[in-house]
Amino acid sequence: MGKVEFNAEAFYAALDSQRQSKKLTWKQVAAESGVSASTLTRMAQGKRPDVDSLAALLDWSGLKAELFVQGGQKTQAESDPLAQITAYLRADRHLTPEGSAAIEAIVKAAYEKLRKDS
Q: Please, what is the end-to-end C-alpha distance for the chain in angstroms?
């Protein structure tokens, strides 16, 4: 088994997709999840969350940690479809970070345009 790493950038991008789908600000995410706003700011700068913050954000978002462990087994998450798509695109070794971000932007725009508001 090779080196196993947590992809913090992909996790943050998926959180951002989940935040946007819920139409929340990062301050509201901090309040709802119990994670400090400064932790979310550090994550935006590429830092990894501590284990308690990670657990709280996974619980808040419905995302599964396995999606962000490179070298680990990937499973289907029960979260917002855009958050899942973001996670899968960012985990794809065949895409550059720029390429996955470009596809993500296209998918998000199309999804927002075509989805039914419930």
A: 44
C-alpha 40/C-alpha 1 separation (Å) is 31
Q: Are 67 and 90 in contact (CB under 8 A)?
A: no
Which pLDDT tens digit goes with each residue over 95-104? 998 999 999 9
Q: Token pair for residue 31?
A: 């309040």
Per-residue pLDDT tens digits for 42-86: 999 999 999 999 999 999 999 989 889 877 454 444 568 888 888
Indicate the burial class of 72 (C-beta count within 10 angstroms; 0-12, 13-18, 19 or more): middle
Give me the sign of the Cα torsion angle 57, 58, 62, 64: positive
CATH fold of 5-113: 434 Repressor (Amino-terminal Domain) (1.10.260)
